[in-house]
Amino acid sequence: MARDVALAARLKYFFKRLTAFNPGRVWSFATQIAEEQGKWAPKIFVDMLIWAAFHDTAYIDYYEADFALLTTRERKTFMTSLVQHHLANALNNRQDVTQFENKLTFNRRFGEYLGREWLDLEEADATQLREFSQRNPIFVAKTPVGREGKGVFRHDTSEIADWDAFRSQLLADGQRLVEQTIVQHPYLAEYCAGTVNTTRVATYFDGKKVHLLMAAQKFGRGAVSDQFTWGGFFTMLDEQGHSFGPGHTGKHKSKYDTHPDSGASIIDFQVPMWDEVLALVDRAAREVPTVPYIGWDVVVGPDGPLIIEGNWTPGLYETRVSATGIRTGSRARHQPAIEASRR
């Protein structure tokens, strides 16, 4: 059976793990898992080492996918951090990924997909910022480079008097990109009106066809972002954009049959305008053929979907059996990208 990660990448990962090996940290993971799952810690400890060394599985992957509860065959259906990073590095051109790493560069390249007004404060003066704020009294400011919702801020400008000072402070804080706030579809607002609830869609473009590899729906809790760092959680989606299980955060017992604030059903969730979402990412995925493996953040507005950003390392989203009861991961759906990475 062919390996999903090239030998050179596996060896590099193995030696990196070996040099950074911290028995105390692994034992801490093992005892936590043993306590949560009712297992024997020494056995978990050894199992984690084996799967890290021979099955491309980081300790956090082992924990968040509940590998202690899965059979060997079930574990092999799950994506892991190493497999995903290998795909990103093997398939995506290292120079061209800069079009995705910087949000300003991304906005310029994918402007037609954004559906919102934005400014680069290095190019816009205080007068332009004030005029922008008159149209968008509450806006989102971002640091151009950031992940996991970090570097995203919401500003209410209703009481701003000194626009030069305000612009200077935004720049001093690294918040160079300002964007119009997004109005989400009423169905999404029923789940959490205070946060834009985004859909992560991972795609692979083989030069002719765009393959849907994975989809997950993220839900916020009222903060500026729906990422885990802001208290958000997610549910995996099937190929029709429907939830196939409760939501969770990747943490133990973080099971959400309904949204904890609004009470809206997570199990019954269906992405609105799903066909339009697929059509949008199909077009976007063809824009930069040298970066074919992308995780898109999409939000559906009242009139259709728009793109928040594209991530050249799509992020690891998988189900967790202790939360969902689902014992099969998404690796099979990633086969088009995996096969391409072997060539």
Write structural notes for this entry.
The protein is an alpha+beta fold and about 350 residues long. The protein has 14 helices and nine strands. The protein has helices at about 5-20, 25-35, 40-55, 60-65, 70-75, 80-90, 100, 105-110, 125-135, 165-170, 185-190, 275-285, 320-325, 335-340, and strands spanning about 120, 140, 150-155, 175-180, 200-205, 210-220, 235, 295-300, 305-310. The strands form two sheets. A five-stranded antiparallel β-sheet has the order 7-6-5-8-9. A hairpin with a 2-residue loop joins strand 8 (about 295-300) and strand 9. About 35% of the residues are buried. The mean pLDDT is about 90.
At a glance:
This protein has 343 residues and is of the alpha+beta class.
Computed structural class: alpha+beta
Widest sheet, order of strands: 7-6-5-8-9
Q: What's the main sheet like?
A: 5 strands, antiparallel
Q: Count all strands and give the number.
A: 9
Helix content: 25-40%
Strand content: 15-25%
Low-confidence stretches: none
Write down the Rg: 21 Å
Distance between the termini: 15 Å
Keywords:
alpha+beta, 14 helices, 9 strands, five-stranded antiparallel sheet, four-stranded antiparallel sheet, 343 residues
Helix/strand layout:
Elements: H1 7-19, H2 23-37, H3 41-54, H4 59-64, H5 72-75, H6 81-91, H7 98-101, H8 103-109, E1 118-120, H9 126-135, E2 138-142, E3 152-156, H10 163-172, E4 177-180, H11 186-189, E5 199-205, E6 210-219, E7 233-236, H12 274-285, E8 293-301, E9 304-311, H13 321-324, H14 335-341
Antiparallel strand pairs: 1-4, 2-3, 2-4, 5-6, 5-8, 6-7, 8-9
Helix pairs in contact: 2-3, 6-14, 9-10
